[in-house]
Sequence to fold (433 residues):
Amino acid sequence: MKVILILTLSLVASFGHADQLDIKLKRYTERFFLKAVEKPTGKKVELYKLGKELFNEKEISGNRNISCADCHMPELGSGDKLPVGIGEGGKWQGKERLISKGQVIPRNSQPLYNLGHEEITHMFWDGRVHYRKDWDVYTTPVEALNGDYPERWDITENLGSALAAQALFPITSHEEMRGKKGSNDIANAPNEEAVWKIVMRRLLAMPKYRKLFKEAYSATPKNELNIGHFAQAIAHFETHEFAAYNTPWDNYLRGDKSALNQKAKRGALVFMESGSCVACHVGTLLGGRGFAAVATPQIGPGKNDPRKNDEGRFLVTGREYDRYRFRIPPLRNIALTAPYFHSGAYGSLEEVVEHYRAGIKALDHYDSSWVINSFKKNFDKILFVETNPYMLFKKKDAAHPIFKNGEIQISNSQKSDLVYFLKHALTDGEQLK
Fold:
């Protein structure tokens, strides 16, 4: 009888604790307007099919040797599992992407999960592609697409999202898909618009794509098809293929309190409270809506700087405020998408959380041996790691105040709960099959 009483009291205490966790989480979800991700609607079979084929098509690259899927493998968390990408000229050996005759991409290949969601308005790590839906206005590296009355309205009218606009640019990058000048007609094209014209000419010369485009855009004459249709189809495929909405966290937000166990609920509270994660990872997607400087270690060549000093969004806006700021990623399926940050500096979520817990001191104690030991085979050389004290000081000085001031104070047990929440509560069960 005594044993039964103890067990009963224990269960009552356990349920009482769970209720308290739910009460606290309810306050935070209401305060921060957190909602479940909904399954995207409006899937068009013909457009999806065209987009899927284009996503896997090497003909869109200058030397016909790389497709979107080569850097965004569905079975590798929609990435390539490398700290920074390997572009045109690289090759796959089993599940390993090797440099071969390829080029190193300055930044990590970003995951594709939920990028078709309405909250996503900026694309790329530096946000150089932006779409304002209420004005139907784009900001991109090509002026002819930008503003209220774009010169190439015939392209922009077919896009409809930041994700579609993003799809226009890997094919114009010499390192990613276009190829070195002198190697092919696309690489030799004088500008981006000329690249897009050649890509469409290549595709529509193939009976397969004449049929697929006709089925997807039955009301559009062949001579009016342009790169906007191409980009829209890829975005449509990605929106539906890489939608993550069936996570325990989403089901919890839909009202199923049993979708999260106590450890996950405690981790969610660390996310909201002492971990300060919600200061940046906001909205339905827990990220994807802004930029932050968090003193990330620099791995690889960096973007457009002979010093290998990647200054992030500053390279787009020129504003001092934006120096070393990078796009805050959405967090669904984050457990599937290592390595992390713009330079792929960390290989695990435990290391990412430890980076935040250490604050700006994390730069001084960064251990790059895992990069050197793990990826020399892929790149056939040791990747650059920034150790210059002045460059590190600049990153520290530009860091977000919460990070810079060491305000993220969490215990080892709280760290364990937080990592558990990130790994288990935010992973779509469908993606694990």
